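Can anyone check this?
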Amino acid sequence: MADFEYVDVNGRQIRVRPRETAQEIDEYGNFHRQPNRFTEGFGEGKNPVEKDRYILFWAKGCNWSNRAAIARELLGLEDAVKVEIVDWTDREENLGWEFVNSPDHINPETGAQFLSELYYNADEEYTGRTTVPAFVDYKTKKVVNNDYHWLTNHLETAFRPFHKKGAPDLYPEELRPEIDKLNKWLFENVNNAVYRAQFAESLQAFADGYETFFTGLDAMEERLADKRFLFGDYVTDSDIRLYTTIARLDVSYSRNIGPCKHRLVDYPNLWGYARDLYQIPAFRHNTYFKDFAASVDLNEADEEYWENTYYDIVVQETDWDTIWKTPTGRESLSKDPAHKFKAEK
């Protein structure tokens, strides 16, 4: 049995959460993201597909969980899958995500104060980071899925009986092999590459992540030169994944990885594409620029400048919504300019 460190919080024994650098850095300083522990799907003898059984826990600053929140709203699953936004609290120990938006920080469906409690209910020997998104079965009070790579696809397929009428077909059957291929490429070259730079512990590891990330953005800039969205005229699952990364570039990642080779606004196609998506209500409702900015990693020397100057003045006083609502003109690239979605059949 592993030897875990615990902290008493209001009579609860809460396990201290490991940091990214504790288990995910190799001998050369490369960051290797931990594998997802809970990957079982839904339906057909797996986790049952039922209304009012699951809660999606996510965090405003987290790229990975932001995807599921957008997909849930696009598909009209608000009445089928509950949602709660988690956050950190200022504690001496790293205890992970806390239910700060629940009364007394106690989630009413599970009775837990920290997301980690629901992870350890599912696997008491789990040694990884307790991450979001986390899909929790509140009948069992256990995390049943934390697989950010496939969770949106589960919402798009297994939960289809609960989709709203006219829901967008984000994962069309005829495109699934291509979408899966692009999603894998996006993970390796864009979504996770920026974190390989952020968490690197050697110059070579940083350079590898940094160059991979910006080369990936260059490729997406070229792809979007003659397409409104990644697969043409309509939004798909892949667009959600690219959006949640590029929306953070100028306000968060630019601080986390040092001087950026390019800003989002330096990519005319990506910048217009990002605004085109933001102007869809489900994207806009789940985009929190001030929280993205607050999620940067800072050393002590930068913290005073960040809090007193950049964050309090630039971030707080910028009218992000007006900037991101400016017209894009990208409808001219579409054969169906009046619509951004193809409805499910």
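Reply from J.R.: I decoded it. The longest helix spans residues 203-223.
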